[in-house]
């Protein structure tokens, strides 16, 4: 089944635009494939070092080059809830590999930081570039050239995009992503948000706030709201990098472990040593990325992926743009309402039918390319399922439910929540920006008000506490881009601006920084590019300038003459506090080399 004409047309222009870089990339992949089983090119000394710590059986298999060797790249640490479950995965994977006649080795670890811990803290200024460090760290592990395939253990915000960039850089190897799943449901997200607002207004204390937060984030697994972490898992499944149904099974359950064993065996089955060779660089193509963007819009996913998807695609020689994402959004309906786009969490989404129901609906309505390759084989249709634990402890699958288990959470393509996905590009004399409106009420999607300019989120919060912001205004928070301070998420603005909006004030945000993957009810023009430190016009806006943010028309304008704006001297705040502390000095080179947000904000690549 072919996709709708609009989807096909957008895909065709991505293919055409990408031809030079994609062809060069595929040539590199094919050259790496043609060199044959990779351990055969290692000297005896190389190989001996590579299996020195293995047991006798694995040593014999690797020495004789008779078995496939599976490299494990892991983001395990036991401080962060999403990554703690990965502690047991290497042993599970190694046992599964042995049962399949193969070998598995932990090839390397990658750092995994949590934006939830670092929000509003200096460490947050390392967050975006940690994605690039993760990609490079994975590359170091795989550079030993000992492996026939790789599995990637990652979940959260920058970890999965960085791992995808690494997997596609090693595109001659098959790759399967193995998630840990979301924590079980705790305090409802809307109740958590209510307590946060009460705290910001001084109506409850820190003890009450911490109690609410601890009841929300209470155990192993990802946070249950639909931010970047859970958007990652949706992407990996709809792009065919997970085994079917793997995304949203809770940690430390028999089905979760069965899916992990299955993924390890499947990775060994698709190496060049077998009959189903599936190198990830050829498997993932322009259609795969279009499917990912469709899924992002159909679920109201994270705005962070308007940066990450571009960087991930670039690693495969594919030139994806903001305009592509926006145009796909215009023709993709919203089928899921998960917090902050609704009251449900991802466990409710999964219980309502989850990824299998969503994929089936999108396939049947022609929004997805069905004829893609996946780690499971040809075509995306096998992902329109619901996973179960079989009596023998393996994974079984049944067709996705015909009806949603909760049509307030997950709906059909014939009865959509809204006709578009809600991600749009804004353009005007300020530059280009991204906005997500799936959780913004229609009456708040066009805001025209005087600017109030800040150079940090702390400045804005201080003005709120001083009682200076109880009016209509557009907050311009600048010098928050990749070059200025690593483009942190400005999550602390969400609560304050939400309070003002609830009071009836017309408020919005314009920033060259990022908002949380849980961008919500306040209209926010984010990722403004060029950023202030890169000569962007956002650096020339002054207090009192009337700014118009029109998410319906897709415009972002300062209502002064273009000549007046261009003639102003750009602001030059003291940014030296961004340079040191919490490791920021080690990232100075990455800030200097960072590409613009619309190009993926990577510190390497073209």
Molecular structure report:
Strands 9-10-14-13-12-11-15-16 form an eight-stranded mixed sheet. A four-stranded parallel sheet has the order 2-1-3-4, sandwiched between helices. Helix content is 38%, strand content 14%. It contains 22 helices and 16 strands. The relative contact order is 0.11. It has 606 residues and is an alpha/beta fold. It starts with a helix and ends in a 13-residue tail after the last helix. The radius of gyration is 24 Å and the shape is globular. The model has no long low-confidence stretch (mean pLDDT 94). The longest helix is centred in the N-terminal third of the chain and has 30 residues. It folds into two domains: 330 residues, no CATH class; 177 residues, 3-Layer(bba) Sandwich (Glucose Oxidase, domain 1). One of its GO terms (cellular component) is cytosol. Its EC number is 4.2.1.12.
What's the structural blueprint in terms of helices and strands?
Blueprint: H1 5-34, H2 44-51, H3 56-64, E1 69-74, H4 89-99, E2 103-109, H5 115-118, H6 127-142, E3 149-153, H7 159-169, E4 175-178, H8 189-200, H9 206-216, H10 228-238, H11 254-269, H12 280-283, H13 286-298, H14 305-315, H15 322-331, H16 346-351, H17 354-364, E5 373-374, E6 377-378, E7 385-389, E8 395-399, E9 423-428, E10 431-436, E11 446-454, H18 457-465, E12 473-477, H19 482-485, H20 492-502, E13 507-511, E14 524-529, E15 546-550, E16 555-558, H21 562-567, H22 588-593
Parallel strand pairs: 1-2, 1-3, 3-4, 11-12, 12-13, 13-14
Antiparallel strand pairs: 5-6, 7-8, 9-10, 10-14, 11-15, 15-16
Helix pairs in contact: 1-15, 4-11, 6-7, 7-14, 8-9, 8-20, 10-13
Catalytic activity: 6-phospho-D-gluconate = 2-dehydro-3-deoxy-6-phospho-D-gluconate + H2O
Family: Belongs to the IlvD/Edd family.
Domain Dihydroxy-acid/6-phosphogluconate dehydratase C-terminal: 408-601
